[in-house]
Write a structure and sequence with these properties.
3 helices; 86% helix; mainly alpha; 168 residues
């Protein structure tokens, strides 16, 4: 039986590669986003620790130099946290654009896959129709030979059967 051959297989392979590239790009951006969010959480924990240390420093005798040092550290960490938030916002826009490209690439790939599925179904129906026609022809030939044999008519049996009958 003949094998199905999709004439746009190269296009489908190209669409799959394109989709994988978009997935890789999106995953890299998501990884950066995760790293920035983790960095931001770390800075928030650090700010909390500095504030806790500052509160503890206000109990009993107050060391103004230590308080000033902690306040400066808190301001520096807060500035870094705000910078991280801005980077995260920019990365969010990149992630949205990458997600849109990934969705578009997936849709283009799926369109070719749907076309391949339709063409396969058409091919399968055509192959089934041809096989049914072939089997019908074989059945008709067999019935004609059987009827001819019952009548004793050698003309319907074919040249091979006639030559076998004529040889003693």
């Amino acid at each position: 039986m003949a094998r199905f051959r999709f004439e746009l297989e190269a296009l489908l392979a190209m669409r799959l590669r394109e989709e994988r590239l978009c997935m890789t790009e999106f995953a890299a951006i998501e990884r950066q986003r995760y790293d920035l969010e983790e960095n931001l959480r770390s800075k928030q924990r650090e700010i909390g620790q500095v504030k806790q240390t500052l509160r503890e420093g206000l109990v009993g005798s107050v060391n103004v130099g230590l308080i000033r040092q902690h306040a400066a550290a808190t301001i520096a960490v807060d500035r870094l946290a705000r910078q991280t938030v801005l980077e995260l916002a920019g990365l969010s826009r990149k992630a949205d654009a990458a997600r849109q490209r990934l969705v578009a690439a997936s849709q283009r790939r799926r369109a070719v896959e749907i076309l391949r599925e339709r063409r396969f179904e058409e091919w399968k129906r055509d192959a089934d129709r041809k096989e049914t026609a072939f089997l019908d022809d074989l059945s008709n030939i067999a019935r004609a030979r059987e009827a001819a044999a019952q009548r004793g008519d050698d003309s319907a049996l074919g040249s091979h059967a006639r030559s076998e009958r004529s040889t003693p």
